[in-house]
Structure formats: C-alpha cells, structure tokens
C-alpha cells in the first residue's frame, strides 16, 4: 500500500466514522436511558436524509444563497426528530415501557417497516442527491491528497460538536441531571419529583434528532436510495454493541475504529469490506461480552 492510498483510506475512514457516530450516539442514548433498542432509528436516519435533500433542492431552485443548505440540514433534522420521534414515543413507546423487551423490539421493527414504505410513497424509488454543501466548501489538501472539505473537515467537526455538546448537556444541565438520575434508578428519581415520562420523551426526541442529523449530513456524500435505513441501523448497532450499549464516549471510539477499518478494507481487501464492522463487533464481544467500555453492574450514558 502506497502512502497516498493509506492517506486516502484514513480520510475516507474519518468521514465515514463521523456519520456512523452521529447515528449510533442517538441509538445508544435511547438504549442507555429507555432500555429500548429502537430499530426504527434507521428509518429516522433515512427520512432525515430525504427531507434534507428535498429542502436543499427547493432552496437552490428558488435561488437562495447555497450556504443556506447548511442551516437547512439542521432544520430538516430537528423537524424529523421532533415530529416523528415525538409521535413514536407518545403514541407507541409510552404504552410498552413495562412490557417484555421482545415486544418492544417488535413494535419498533413494525414502525421501521411502516416508515420504510412511507418513504417509498413520498419520494418513490429513484435516487435522490443534493451536493450543494459539498460544492460550496470545495476541496482541501491534506496528507498529500486533494479531498472534499465537507467530508474531511466539516463532518468530523460536526461529530465532535455533537459529542462535547451532549457530554456538557448530560453533566452540567438540570435536564441532563434528570436524565442521569432516571437512568440510574427510575423509582428513586420519581420519588424525588422527577417526571420520568417527560425525561423519556425528551431523550427519545434527542436521539431521534441525532439519527435524522446523521441522515441530513450524509445527503451530500451519497445517493439516497430505498433501504439505506436498514443498512445504517445494522451498522449503528455494530458500533453501539462494540462500545457497550449505553456508552456515549465509547460509541465515538468504536465508530472511529470501525470506520477506519472498513475504509482500509475497501483498498486492501474489498471482498471483506461489507463484513468488516461485524467482524470487529464479534471479535470484541468474544473477548468483552459487554463491549469495549461496557460494565456488568453499572450502566452509564
């Protein structure tokens, strides 16, 4: 492997890991607090991407400044996360928190299937693409490689902002303290006056917004096709399981490991590129069944 190919694989892996983390952190946050593995998370990612592409294309068609596509991504992600995430939590999940985990999994899988078909009804099966942010930022030269600034600078920066903002929110705000209290002991938190239902709602909406944001930021880098949500939820679960379900900082590290390993596999051995994330997950779980950063007795978020 030449130095140029190694540098290209590293930059590809960094960009891919950033998107993986944005989606996986929402999945692991929801599991860490609610104890539910939300299969519908993948559909929220896909709908966030489609909504961003639709809004971005409209902005460009109307002659607005192309830089407005960046705040447009955030608007689309928040709209999808709040509206869809809020409806899912209020109408469905609130009714099954005390039910068997298998039922919870089946319900979120049913929501996933409904949303997948809803995507086909609204956007059809033709690929969507919105490259404006990629074009606006142009290219930079790093490690001797000309690379898009959006992927190598903007995406990692966005992932870092999400990571540190979420850490600050959980550790230094009143709502974050309530989330941590409910996570540790819901009954004790309720006894001291914390509204656990409100905490669950807020947590699910925040996690849904992260999924939609991941889709929004992925829009300029890939064609949007049906089934993309299914692929992302499996990859996100691999990241979350490798880190340890409920581990936010660990999700960042495992996303980086999986993203870079997958990228190098593309250049060195393309035939194993697809299975690389799952191979890493299996190897980690064989040695550490609770994940790289998971603990047996204490569940942290």
Can you describe what's shown?
- 72% of the residues lie in helices and 3% in strands.
- Helix 10 packs across helix 11.
- It starts with a helix and ends in a 14-residue tail after the last helix.
- The mean pLDDT is 89.
Class computed from helices, strands and strand pairing: mainly alpha
Secondary-structure element pattern, one letter each: HHHHHEEHHHHHHH
What would the average pLDDT be, to the nearest integer?
89
Gyration radius (Cα, Å) is 19 Å
Widest beta sheet: strand line-up: 1-2
Pfam families: BPD_transp_2
Subcellular location: Cell membrane
Keywords: Amino-acid transport, Cell membrane, Membrane, Transmembrane, Transmembrane helix, Transport
Membrane topology: Multi-pass membrane protein
Topology:
Layout: H1 3-34, H2 41-61, H3 69-91, H4 101-123, H5 132-137, E1 139-142, E2 145-148, H6 149-172, H7 174-184, H8 186-191, H9 196-218, H10 228-243, H11 248-268, H12 276-287
Antiparallel strand pairs: 1-2
Helix pairs in contact: 1-6, 1-9, 1-10, 1-11, 2-3, 2-4, 2-9, 2-10, 3-9, 6-7, 7-9, 10-11, 10-12
Short summary:
Pfam families: BPD_transp_2. By secondary structure, the chain is mainly α. The protein has helices spanning 3-34, 41-61, 69-91, 101-123, 132-137, 149-172, 174-184, 186-191, 196-218, 228-243, 248-268, 276-287; strands spanning 139-142, 145-148.
């Amino acid at each position: 492997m030449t130095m140029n190919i190694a540098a290209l694989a590293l930059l590809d892996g960094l960009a891919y890991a950033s998107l993986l983390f944005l989606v996986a952190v929402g999945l692991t946050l929801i599991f860490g607090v609610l104890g539910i593995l939300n299969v519908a998370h993948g559909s929220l990612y896909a709908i966030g991407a489609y909504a961003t592409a639709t809004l971005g294309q409209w902005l460009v068609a109307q002659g607005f400044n192309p830089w407005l596509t960046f705040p447009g991504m955030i608007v689309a992600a928040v709209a999808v996360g709040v509206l869809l995430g809020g409806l899912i939590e209020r109408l469905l999940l609130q009714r099954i928190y005390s039910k068997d985990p298998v039922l919870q999994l089946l319900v979120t899988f049913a929501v996933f299937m409904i949303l997948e078909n809803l995507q086909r009804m609204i956007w059809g099966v033709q690929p969507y693409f919105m490259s404006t942010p990629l074009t606006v930022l142009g290219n930079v030269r790093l490690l001797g490689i000309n690379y898009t600034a959006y992927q190598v600078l903007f995406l990692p920066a966005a992932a870092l902002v999400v990571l540190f903002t979420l850490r600050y929110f959980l550790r230094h705000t009143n709502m974050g303290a309530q989330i941590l209290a409910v996570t540790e002991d819901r009954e004790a938190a309720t006894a001291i006056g914390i509204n656990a239902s409100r905490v669950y709602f807020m947590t699910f909406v925040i996690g849904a917004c992260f999924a939609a944001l991941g889709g929004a930021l992925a829009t300029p880098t890939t064609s949007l096709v049906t089934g993309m949500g299914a692929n992302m939820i499996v990859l996100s679960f691999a990241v979350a399981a490798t880190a340890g379900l409920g581990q936010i900082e660990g999700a960042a590290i495992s996303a980086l490991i999986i993203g870079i390993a997958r990228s190098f596999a593309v250049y060195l051995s393309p035939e194993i590129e697809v299975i690389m994330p799952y191979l890493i997950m299996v190897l980690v779980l064989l040695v550490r069944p609770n994940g790289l950063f998971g603990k047996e007795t204490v569940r942290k978020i």
